[in-house]
Specification:
CATH architecture of the largest domain: Sandwich
Number of helices: 16
Oligomer: single chain
CATH class of the largest domain: Mainly Beta
Number of domains: 5
Shape: globular
Structural class: alpha+beta
Radius of gyration: 28 Å
Length: about 675
């Protein structure tokens, strides 16, 4: 009987004496074989207990000398030695591993084949998996392969965890997340990832100690940007630590977040259930350490712990035992960084302290907020050698915003993102937009206007599009039947200089008094300033959210109705919201989709549209990194890529057959400039 067969069969014996008798018989006196199988059994059982046992039970003292504490202590140590796709190694590490699942290879520098991949090296091993460096013979590139440990590949919980990681990472496409190329299940589950030539952040810190301020800001901004991409898809990493941060080799290190083995969707019952501990204790959030429910702000606390170590050279919550670490995470304030490294500026310490707030409502409220704060400080530091510190938007403190000729004092609450508009003060800052309402209740005017740019299209990529003249051009999709409580409507548009009150996308039930949702170009909002926005109308008056319009600049605009509120985003930045109390739980029944005009055949748009996607869910719960294009997935109702270039039909690329008829709009193409 093979080693993996003995291991799998041994798991079926829950009684220790029965399991011992089975091993005595199956191992036939082979002490080395017996030791390997028993080690696998211990690792399997400890991992299951650590991930699944309620926190209250785990923290109880035991008569056995603290088996749980030993398990967590091991996890603390493992946090500094995680498997990765960049570690130099030699093939000697494969000698003690079961690599029988690899096919023979004729290449002298290969240790075997897995599918069409030549396996070159073992990069790392763990209780659950083996990481290889391999060569993709089809695409002629180096890759990293993470394969399940063959001894446990046949057991259900580890397999589910492995596939969960694969699905989690594959859903994220961002430059600061390790990209998954493929997920395979034969001869055992494995995923193929991009190969990162570099080292982990833990390796870097072990070798160099504390980093300088400019590098902390650069790497920290990239980490936060990668987290923002994961959070935008509703995923929480739950194990952010230096060992899971890869630094790609080059003149400027590029961050790659890896190891999403603990990642879960924010609405996953297993992370909203109280009493479950998972993660690496040294970098856990207080809510993780106490087994409470988690949201994306848990990752932000962990990010604070990583930044603390980058600045001070040591983790913030060190203690003599694992249980003491958990207690410190939950209850203690870490030693001030400036007591360890006096040269670290106070404004950087303030950013880390805000990430480290025990009350998650007092932390930064999104990874995007962290990206913006660090980017602002990074710019100031590079230009002047100093930075102001945590901005008013992040602090929730009184702040003075200079606007040239006049200065406006504003009290900006960190929770403004979730505060009903009617209860906000007369001055708001919407992510760079200072909106001032006159004392007599006059219409708001915009004092400062800033929005991020979306990424350039890939070099050589030709984006199609349709030009709309603002007079009578439009596109119509009839005979749809969409009934959902939530929707996301998003479009990539370039508005003309004189585009005014034109409808970009209209989704409606048809009829004069029906339901509708629209993305639109608005009118003037002050000298040289114009608005854009989103509206919904159901069985109650119109609900509107709006933000800035920048003519002749390609923008990604998205409206999201989550069942209770309408949210509006420009280039990934949340611009505002309107509560629609009377619409809560409403099932919207949409029958017609138009591009370039309203459902009533009026309010024609002037400018260019080059991509539109309609989805049956609220895709964006918060600000997200700017994106250049979108793709179809299982929640897409329709996707229009505008890449036909001719004809009077606009094809639905989602595969659902909702092709559209073009009336008057003319085809164009835009090719991004070469670098």
């Amino acid at each position: 009987m093979k080693e993996r067969d003995i291991f799998g069969k041994a798991l079926e014996y829950s009684d220790p004496s029965s399991r011992k008798a089975f091993l005595d018989n199956s191992c036939e006196g082979d002490a080395a074989l017996r030791a390997r199988i028993e080690a696998l059994l211990v690792a399997h059982e400890n991992a299951s207990q650590f991930l699944d046992q309620p926190a209250a039970e785990q923290l109880k003292p035991t008569n056995s000398g603290g088996q749980l504490a030993q398990t967590i202590d091991s996890a603390v140590r493992d946090g500094r030695n995680s498997s990765r796709a960049d570690e130099d190694s030699d093939n000697d590490g494969a000698n003690d591993l079961d690599l029988s699942f690899l096919q023979p290879s004729s290449q002298p520098d290969s240790i075997g084949r897995l599918g069409h991949y030549e396996v070159l090296q073992v990069l790392g091993t763990g209780a659950f998996g083996i990481v290889f460096k391999a060569f993709d013979e089809k695409l002629h590139r180096l890759v990293a392969i993470k394969a399940m440990n063959p001894q446990i590949a046949a057991t259900s919980p580890p397999r589910k965890r492995f596939l969960r990681e694969a699905r989690s990472v594959a859903a994220i496409k961002h430059e600061n997340i390790v990209q998954v190329y493929s997920v395979e299940e034969q001869p055992l589950p494995y995923l193929v990832m991009e190969y990162i030539d570099g080292q982990t952040l833990q390796d870097r810190l072990d070798g160099s100690g504390p980093l300088d301020v400019s590098e902390i800001l650069d790497l920290g901004r990239q980490m936060a940007s990668g987290l923002a991409a994961a959070h935008a898809l509703g995923l929480i990493h739950r194990d952010i630590k230096p060992g899971n941060i890869l630094l790609e080799r080059g003149a400027a290190s590029r961050v790659k977040i890896t190891d999403f083995g603990l990642a879960r969707a924010a609405d996953d019952a297993s992370i909203t259930q109280s009493g479950i501990i998972s993660g690496t204790p040294l970098y856990m959030s207080p809510e993780q350490a106490q087994g409470h429910s988690l949201d994306h702000r848990s990752d932000l606390f962990s990010l604070g712990s990583v930044l603390y170590q980058m600045a001070s050279g040591r983790p913030p919550f060190r203690a003599a035992s694992a249980l003491a670490v958990l207690k410190r995470v939950a209850d203690d304030t870490p030693r001030p960084i400036q007591e360890i490294i006096p040269e670290v500026p106070q404004w950087l310490c303030s950013i880390i302290a805000k990430l480290h707030d025990k009350d998650r409502n007092e932390r930064f409220q999104s990874a995007t907020d962290v990206v913006e704060e660090i980017a602002r400080c990074q710019s100031e530091f590079e230009n002047t050698g100093e930075a102001v510190g945590v901005s008013a938007m992040s602090r929730g403190k009184d702040h003075v915003q200079s606007t040239g000729a006049k200065t406006v004092a504003a009290s900006v609450e960190s929770t403004a993102r979730h505060t009903p508009l009617r209860s906000r003060p007369a001055v708001w800052i919407f992510l760079g937009i200072l909106v001032v309402v006159g004392a007599n209740g006059a219409a708001p005017y915009l004092v400062q206007w800033m929005t991020p740019e979306i990424p350039n299209l890939p070099e050589g990529f030709v984006s199609g599009g349709l030009n709309f003249d603002g007079k009578d051009d439009y596109v119509k999709v009839g005979a749809i039947d969409w009934s959902y409580p939530q929707f996301t409507i998003e479009a990539f548009v370039t508005s003309a200089n004189n585009s005014d009150n034109g409808t970009i996308v209209s989704l409606s039930s048809m009829g004069k008094d029906g339901e509708w949702m629209v993305l639109y170009d608005g009118g003037q909002a002050g000298p040289g300033k114009r608005t854009s926005g989103a509206q919904i109308k159901g069985e109650t008056p119109i609900v509107t959210a709006y933000g800035p319009l920048t003519p002749n600049v390609r923008q990604h605009r998205a409206m999201v109705f989550d069942g209770a509120k309408l949210h509006y985003y420009i280039n990934g930045i949340w611009q505002g919201e309107r509560r629609a109390a009377a619409h809560e739980g409403m099932m919207w029944k949409m029958r017609e989709l138009r591009l370039g005009c309203g459902g009533d055949g009026r309010r024609f748009f002037q400018g260019r549209i080059d991509q539109v996607r309609i989805s049956k869910v609220a895709r964006y719960p918060d600000s997200f990194p700017p994106i250049a294009r979108v793709d179809s997935d299982d929640v897409t109702l329709a996707l229009y890529n505008f890449d036909e270039g001719r004809g009077d039909t606009l094809a639905d690329a989602s595969g659902h057959g909702h092709d559209a008829k073009i009336f008057g709009a003319t085809w164009v193409s835009q090719k991004p400039p070469s670098k």
